[in-house]
Specification:
The protein is an all-alpha fold. About 60% of the residues lie in helices and about 5% in strands. The chain is built from seven helices and two strands; from the N terminus they run αβαααβααα.
């Protein structure tokens, strides 16, 4: 009987983990404030060796498209990991024809959003979007 209960608990735990990326997460007040601060800051300001926008294509993008993702989450007050990644990666594709440094800055901004939202991993989706293929652990991009 004890084995049956343990097995049932294991199956339920696996099922719950499988749907974690679809479970809605409600924003905390701290996350909301961090998202507002994220929206206010420039993602492409000169910093260190980065000289700022390196591509006319980025200059043509309206008001940092990644802010749209943050604004939507603030407006809704909740998000799911999958919906966030779908929206963020869709916006990242706007940077496909920009300089490598600009693309990397855009991806770094999405990683900052993930930190704010408590998303520990994109499950390889960001790497796949950036490099055009899945990257296995230990592989070089």
């Amino acid at each position: 009987m004890l084995n049956f209960i343990g097995a049932l608990a294991g199956v339920l735990l696996l099922a719950a983990c499988g749907h974690a990326s679809q479970a809605p997460v409600v924003l905390t007040d701290v996350q909301r404030a961090q998202l507002v601060a994220f929206i206010a800051q420039s993602k492409f300001a000169p910093e260190g060796d980065y000289v700022g926008y390196g591509s006319e294509d980025v200059l043509a993008l309206p008001d940092d498209p990644l802010n749209d993702v943050a604004r939507e989450i603030v407006r809704r007050g909740s998000f799911t990991k999958d919906s966030f990644l779908d929206r963020a990666i869709g916006k990242l594709h706007l940077f496909d024809r920009t300089d490598t440094e600009d693309r990397e800055r855009a991806y770094a901004a999405v990683e900052r959003l993930m930190d704010i939202l408590g998303i520990a991993s994109s499950d390889g989706r960001l790497n796949e979007a950036l490099y055009g293929r899945k990257i296995k652990p230990g592989d070089a991009p």
